[in-house]
Amino acid sequence: MTDSPRITPVLAIVSGAGSAGKTTTATTLAALLAQDGQRVLLIDLDPQANATTAVGVDPETVTHTAGTVMLREITLAEAIVSTPIEGLSLVPASDLLDQQRILLGTVTGAEQRLKHALRGVEDLADVVILDCQQGVGELFPVAALVAATAALTTTFPSTKELQGLPRTEGIVTDVADAYNPDLALVAVVPCSVPPVGAGRFYAEAIDALQGAYGGLVTPPVRRSVVASRAYDQRTPLPIGASGEPVTEDYRAVLADLRAKGVLA
Ligand SMILES: Nc1ncnc2c1ncn2[C@@H]1O[C@H](COP(=O)(O)OP(=O)(O)OP(=O)(O)O)[C@@H](O)[C@H]1O
Ligand SMILES: [Mg+2]
Predict the structure, then answer these.
(1) Where does the chain show beta strands of DSSP type E?
(2) What's residue 114's pLDDT?
């Protein structure tokens, strides 16, 4: 009997709403998994390059991105750079992605090219995390969903953000139908959740989230200035603020994703 082939989980972190906690979640989960000894590949698909910055790589130094790979100018392996965090490698982003998106707009099947580039990724990484820009219908988020084994979304517990979730769910379903039948939205992470003392409004929003998405909703991540400071210091939470309650919240999110079978 032969062993079944290893499948590297590819987790796309997407949301229709901006400033919803995607990058904080992507970089924190990536650093937690790297600390656990996994080979983690973080792919930054946002021209804002916040994930690149957050893990300590200067976007000004970036000469190639996932867009360069999708244009088939270099391979995925050639696009990977190391980060200051042991076990965490990165395909960085910069505003080059803006031009590359326009070039890729003329390429038939561009949305499938990240998936093709990730063939054989099990030799490079045990887990891949894709940090996407706001807006699920854009080329790069769609390419991420085509390439992903699972989709995760993040949301702030407030009306506007919650209203965006059905659209995110709809795009995941559309991509699954068209390209990737195994794809599903596997988790909704409530991010930057204010303390109970902030009033019933937020608690009711979490209740509404649980009513609509049930078991997909992970434990909440509290609002904490420590999360913003981690970005300012270009050091993910588990590295620079390991013992902080907000980092513990993310450990609970990771445990929940493991319990759901999303991550190993
Ligand atoms: N738990 C938290 N507590 C306080 N601030 C937070 C928390 N999580 C994220 N933030 C801050 O909220 C802002 C948005 O977070 P983040 O960049 O992770 O969202 P995003 O969804 O990736 O945004 P974009 O759509 O621009 O890519 C950032 O300034 C970040 O530092
Ligand atoms: Mg972001």
Answers:
(1) 10-14, 40-44, 81-82, 88-91, 127-131, 150-155, 185-190
(2) 98
